[in-house]
Amino acid sequence: MIHIDLTDQPIDVAAALQLVEAEGAGAINTFIGTVRNQSTGRSVVRLEYEAYDSMALHQLRKVAEQALEQWPMLQQVAIIHRKGTLYIGDVAVVVAVSTPHRAESFAACQFIIDTLKQVVTIWKKEFYEDGDVWVAAHP
Amino acid sequence: MNLKIALFGIAREIVGQSALEVSAPEGQSARGLLQDLHARYPELARLSSLAVAVNNEYAAEDAPLREHDEIALIPPVSGG
C-alpha cells in the first residue's frame, strides 16, 4: 500500500504510476518535481541532492502514513525521491496516489509533497555558472 | 559520555567532516549539544534552523541524549 524509494538512478515515472494502480481507484494523481533552469534569478547548471538515507526513508514512510490517516480511502501511495547529481529537466521526486474519487487524490498528493519538503532529510545544493548555494540554509 | 554525531549538507561543510565525536555530560540535552556546537562552530548559528535527530526522529530540545544513540545534525531540509 505504501511504496517508498530513495534512489541515485533516474526515476521511471511510468513504473511509479504502475505502483499505485488499484481496482478500487477512480483517480490517480501524480506530482512530478523537476529541475528548473533558474533559481532566484540565477541560471542553474545542476543540482546535487544529499540525503540522510535511513532518516529520509523513515520520514517518507511517516508522511505516507499520515496521509493514510487523513484520507483512509487512499488505495496506494508511492513516493520516490532522487539523490545525487541532477541536470535541468531531470525528475527529482514523484508522488503518486490512488483514491476512489478525484478530490481526495489532489488533496493527499499536495499534502504529501508539502510535508515532504518540510521534514524529509534531503538537502539540495544548486550550482550556478558562478557559484553554489545550499537551498534554504540561511535566512 | 561520548556522542557520535553525523553531519549532512551545509553542516557537514561548516564542520569540514561528515561525523564528529564530542564528549558531553551525562544527560546532555539536544539543546545543550547545539549550544556547545554553536560555540565551536559559529557558522552553525547563522543557519535558518538546526535540529537534532535521534534514531531517525526529530528530537525535542530537552530530550536527553544517550551514548549509543544515532545522533545527527539536521540543517534546513530542501528536498522535493
TrEMBL record, chain A:
Of which family is this protein a member?
A: Belongs to the MoaE family.
**Which Enzyme Commission numbers does its entry carry?**
2.8.1.12
Q: Which CDD domains match?
A: MoaE
Assembly information from the UniProt record? Heterotetramer of 2 MoaD subunits and 2 MoaE subunits. Also stable as homodimer. The enzyme changes between these two forms during catalysis.
Tell me yes or no: is Ribonucleoprotein among this UniProt entry's keywords. no
Q: What organism is listed for this UniProt entry? A: Hymenobacter guriensis
Acetylation recorded as keyword? no
Annotated PANTHER family: MOLYBDOPTERIN SYNTHASE RELATED
Protein name as annotated: Molybdopterin synthase catalytic subunit
**Catalysed conversion reaction:** 2 [molybdopterin-synthase sulfur-carrier protein]-C-terminal-Gly-aminoethanethioate + cyclic pyranopterin phosphate + H2O = molybdopterin + 2 [molybdopterin-synthase sulfur-carrier protein]-C-terminal Gly-Gly + 2 H(+)
Pathway as given in its UniProt record: Cofactor biosynthesis; molybdopterin biosynthesis
Keyword list (alphabetical) reads:
Molybdenum cofactor biosynthesis
Kind of enzyme, top EC level?
transferase
Xref: InterPro entries: MoaE_sf, Mopterin_biosynth_MoaE
From TrEMBL, chain B:
The signal peptide stretch is none
The lineage's top-level taxon is: Bacteria
| Coiled-coil residue windows | none
Does the keyword Phosphoprotein belong to this entry?
no
Keyword terms: Nucleotide-binding
Q: Which InterPro entries match?
A: Beta-grasp_dom_sf, MOCS2A, Mopterin_synth/thiamin_S_b, ThiS/MoaD-like
**Family to which the UniProt record says this protein belongs:** Belongs to the MoaD family.
What name does UniProt use for this protein?
Molybdopterin synthase sulfur carrier subunit
Origin organism is: Hymenobacter guriensis
